[in-house]
């Protein structure tokens, strides 16, 4: 974990309301898939924006973000050459065990971007099937990455691209046809994760989910971004997560 | 190289910059980034007798120039802190200030007795705006400020007592005097201002607790004014806080009458904010021929009106 002075080398809209920003860092960071960075957008914004790391290529790091509030609107307007502070890498990330060969990626919304980092780390080493849900055709992005998976199924909420279903439904349909992954890695909106949790618990498939929460410090000190564990304990999404074993976390 | 050390009611701090309670945990996470032994002190996450789970999430929101939080005193309990974190925190070499809160007067006495002699100072949280029983009830009226201070003081034979004051009151100077009358060795201010931020799409407050404590750069002028008023009213040391982001901000508080300062929200914006403030204080003093930073305290001259 370092607070890098990161220089924007590319910042562009890749789908409706979704941008991709690439920074050049002074060194190549050691990043595990599923980790995130805390980006300082400056100005009147006192909180940094915690965003999942999508791609790392040497000393270039790409994040994808949804333009939602003032901070991300300002980020979108920033040009090449702008320098921002980026604290990274943060959190635990995804990890696939040696014994786990078949990996299912189930993602929706902006949750698809940390799954791209998984694909980039494990493509060719594991048998990866990606079940990816987009809101509509205009939100479709990242296909060049997801097509690196052994199988990829993209769907939309309104059927404007692929079938009209969500990522959990299309994953469930694959299970019905006899597909059985050794582990499921997922990120997406909470209702999606809840549906997935129910499904994998019924089927007895190990599953890890990456959670999103409003954060303060990003490093585990302030206890702002907590979640409840099924054990009754609390965990910090930023430091103990963002990736949790699905059966150990309350959603 | 200026002398940055200050004497805060008998406790020598390496410099006047203290991590504010609730933004810094017990220091371990920030110590991964820099040596927290270089700080003047660390005020711990608010401790209670029993462990507390805190509020539901979201616990934080942002508004221009400020943030709102309602963590709700989540902490592992004072005994867990003493058993698992205190020795480590002491070993860093920073001054350890235990921030404590209670539901009842007996709670305050008991928690002070547990910490007496183990920490450099106890900071009494009687102003947490985010919990129903976080001591806020004790922090509003001057009579109850005096009473809870007396009770806490009765539990402390060796360790000095700092009372943290709420700005959400009729007169913070009157409450500061009440703390002094109750036996406080120093006061700290300001705790957060109660606020609300609304998600207009959902027509609901962003924070699950509905209201939250406002802090950050935007509250600084209020905090400086209150620091001045309190330092004029009492004859015990004052620790100022509220929106300190840079060394120049800290100097404003010192000139307004503070002996030391606390830094909270700035740690979120820049995790290295405090080391930078300490370096900046040194540079400012050198540039201005100030040999001891303590010389700056209370040097404000008001304009003639």
Strand neighbour order, sheet with most strands of chain A: 1-2-5-4-3-6
The CATH topology annotation of chain B reads as TIM Barrel
Integer tally of domains of chain A: 2
General shape of chain B: globular
CATH fold-level assignment of the largest domain in chain A: Rossmann fold
How many strand elements of chain B?
16
How many helices of chain A does DSSP assign?
5
Rg of chain B, Cα atoms, Å: 18 Å
Mind explaining what this structure looks like?
The complex is a heterodimer of chains A (251) and B (305). With 251 residues, chain A is α/β, with parallel strands linked by helices. Chain A folds into two domains: 2-90, Beta Barrel (Elongation Factor Tu (Ef-tu), domain 3), CATH 2.40.30.10; 102-210, Nucleotide-binding domain of ferredoxin-NADP reductase (FNR) module (Rossmann fold, 3-Layer(aba) Sandwich), CATH 3.40.50. Chain A has five helices and 14 strands. The longest helix of chain A has 14 residues, at 190-203. Chain A starts with a strand and ends in a 6-residue tail after the last strand. Chain B is built from eleven helices and 16 strands. Chain B has helices spanning 28-31, 78-84, 86-91, 105-115, 136-140, 142-154, 172-182, 220-233, 247-256, 266-269, 273-287, and strands at residues 6-8, 11-13, 17-19, 41-43, 60-63, 66-69, 95-100, 121-125, 161-164, 186-189, 193-195, 198-199, 204-205, 212-215, 238-241, 260-263. Chain B is 33% helix and 19% strand. Chain B has 305 residues and is an alpha/beta fold. Chain B has a single domain, classed as Aldolase class I (TIM Barrel, Alpha-Beta Barrel), CATH 3.20.20.70. In chain B, helix 4 packs parallel to helix 6 (142-154), helix 6 packs parallel to helix 7 (172-182) and helix 7 (172-182) crosses helix 8 (220-233). The radius of gyration of chain B is 18 Å and the shape is globular. The model of chain B has no long low-confidence stretch (mean pLDDT 96). The chains are: A alpha/beta (251), B alpha/beta (305). Chain A binds chain B through residues 1, 3, 40, 44-48, 70-71, 85, 87, 213-227, 234, 239, and chain B through 22-25, 27-30, 32-33, 45, 53-54, 57-62, 64-67, 69, 71, 74, 206, 216-217, 265-272.
């Amino acid at each position: 974990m370092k607070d890098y002075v990161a220089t924007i080398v590319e910042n562009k809209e890749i789908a409706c309301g979704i941008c991709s920003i690439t920074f050049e860092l002074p060194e190549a960071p050691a990043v595990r898939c599923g980790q995130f960075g805390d980006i300082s957008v400056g100005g009147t914004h006192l909180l940094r924006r915690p965003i999942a790391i999508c791609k790392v290529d040497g000393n270039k790091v790409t994040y994808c973000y949804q333009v939602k509030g003032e901070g991300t609107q300002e980020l979108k307007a920033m040009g090449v050459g702008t320098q921002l502070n980026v604290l990274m890498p943060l959190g635990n990330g995804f990890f696939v065990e040696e014994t786990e060969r078949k990996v299912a990626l189930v993602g929706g919304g902006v949750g698809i971007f940390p799954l791209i980092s998984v694909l980039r780390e494990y493509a060719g080493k594991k048998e990866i099937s990606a079940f990816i849900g987009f809101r509509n055709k205009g939100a479709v992005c990242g296909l060049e990455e997801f097509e690196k998976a052994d199988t990829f199924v993209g769907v939309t909420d309104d059927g404007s691209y692929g079938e009209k279903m969500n990522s959990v439904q299309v994953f469930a349909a694959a299970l019905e046809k006899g597909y059985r992954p050794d582990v499921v890695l997922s990120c997406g909106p909470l209702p999606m994760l809840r549906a997935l949790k129910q499904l994998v618990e019924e089927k007895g498939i190990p599953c890890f989910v990456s959670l999103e929460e409003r954060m303060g410090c990003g490093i585990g000190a302030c206890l702002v971004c907590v979640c409840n564990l099924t054990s009754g304990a609390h965990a910090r999404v930023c430091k103990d997560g963002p990736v949790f074993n699905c059966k150990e976390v309350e959603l | 190289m200026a002398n940055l050390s200050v004497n805060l009611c008998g406790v020598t701090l390496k410099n006047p910059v203290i991590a504010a309670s609730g933004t810094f945990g017990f220091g371990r996470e920030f110590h991964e980034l820099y040596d927290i032994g270089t700080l003047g002190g660390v005020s711990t996450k608010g401790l209670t007798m029993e462990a507390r789970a805190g509020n539901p999430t979201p616990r934080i929101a942002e508004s221009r120039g400020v943030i709102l939080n309602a963590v709700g005193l989540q902490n592992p309990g004072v005994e867990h802190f003493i058993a698992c974190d205190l020795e480590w925190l002491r070993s860093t070499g920073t001054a350890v200030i235990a921030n404590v809160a209670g539901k009842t007067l007996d709670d305050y006495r008991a928690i002070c007795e547990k910490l007496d002699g183990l920490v450099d100072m106890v900071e009494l949280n009687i102003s947490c705006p985010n919990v129903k029983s976080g001591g806020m009830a004790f922090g509003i009226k001057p009579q109850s400020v005096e009473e809870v201070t007396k009770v806490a003081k009765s539990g402390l034979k060796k360790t000095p007592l700092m009372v943290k004051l709420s700005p959400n009151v009729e007169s913070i100077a009157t409450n500061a005097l009440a703390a002094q009358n109750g036996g406080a060795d120093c006061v700290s201010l300001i705790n957060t201002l109660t606020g609300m931020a609304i998600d207009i799409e959902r027509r609901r407050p962003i924070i699950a607790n509905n209201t939250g404590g406002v802090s950050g750069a935007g509250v600084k002028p209020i905090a400086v004014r209150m620091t001045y008023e309190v330092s004029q009213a009492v004859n015990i040391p004052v620790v100022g806080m509220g929106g300190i982001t840079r060394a120049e901000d800290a100097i404003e508080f010192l000139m307004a009458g503070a002996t030391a300062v606390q830094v909270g929200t700035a740690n979120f914006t820049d995790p290295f904010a405090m080391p930078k403030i300490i370096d900046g204080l040194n540079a400012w003093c050198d540039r201005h021929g100030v040999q001891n930073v303590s010389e700056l305290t209370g040097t404000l001259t008001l304009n003639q009106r």
